[in-house]
Design a protein that fits this description.
Layout lengths: L1 E4 L5 H10 L8 H4 L3 E4 L3 E10 L2 E9 L5 H17 L4 E6 L2 H9 L3 E2 L6 E2 L2 E2 L9 E6 L2
Parallel strand pairs: 4-5
Antiparallel strand pairs: 1-2, 2-3, 3-4, 5-9, 6-9, 7-8
């Protein structure tokens, strides 16, 4: 298994991977370019973020099969390096599935108050993400 940075040469393979995942309806190619993927004879997972000023919002954290914690940690470290290089000060994720909270907390994310979170100037409590847990990771 190896972790590969998304670039122009492999972007189409990543898009095809996301199209195979039924939960993904809209694919943002700009966000994909901020990603890293896990490859083992095929793409088995992707982690990427979208930029909002000095914040990065985790947009794609998708796997087609279970991978070990060491792979997740290595993938996350590469995303941190990429985010820092782009001037990002913190990563934010909205977690809908409670089981995923432990994954993010093990990476160093912590829960923040929903009252401080807005999506396009709308309080998160007034969006479809009103039941999501909001987690943050500060980049040093």
């Amino acid at each position: 298994m190896e972790i590969i940075s998304v670039d122009q040469d492999n972007k189409e393979k990543v898009v095809n991977f996301l199209r195979e995942i039924s939960l993904v309806h809209e694919i943002n190619e700009e966000v994909i370019m901020n990603g890293e993927f896990v490859y083992d004879e095929e793409i088995i997972g992707l982690l990427s973020f979208e930029e909002f000023n000095k914040l990065g919002l985790i947009r794609y954290f998708i796997f087609r099969k279970v991978v070990g914690e060491e792979i997740i940690l290595e993938l996350f470290k590469k995303i941190i390096t990429k985010a820092k290089a782009r001037g990002i000060k913190a990563l934010i994720t909205l977690v809908v599935k409670k089981d995923a909270i432990d994954i993010f907390k093990s990476l160093g994310f912590y829960e923040i108050d929903q009252d401080d979170v807005f999506i396009e100037e709308t309080a998160i409590k007034s969006t479809k993400f009103k039941d999501a847990y909001v987690l943050k990771y500060d980049l040093q």
